[in-house]
Amino acid sequence: MSDSIPVNPPEPTTPPSPTQNGAWGVLLSTFITIFLAEMGDKTQLATMLMAAQSRSPLSVLLGAGTALIATSLVGVLLGRWISKLVSPKTLDLLAATLMVGIAMMLSIEVFTNSN
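The structure corresponding to this sequence follows.
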């Protein structure tokens, strides 16, 4: 009876990133992220109020949709430009730092205004 150790142990598996799944993976992950982020935010509430007050909800839909596309275009173009200047790791670090900073500022505001 001999115990043999495999010469080449299997590589650890990592879940595929959206970019490894191609354009459809990126599209789906972007849609889900933006859809969930926009649910119940002030833009959706403003659009809902405008649709309720107007006699033309289709016009509100077209105006809101066009505005969201335009702001997304600005984000994509800026993101592409920034990605040429800064590494993805640095972008992740900057985004995380920004999010923590915003969370801290909001927390301080909540605690100072609650008294």
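The first helix runs from residue 22 to 38.
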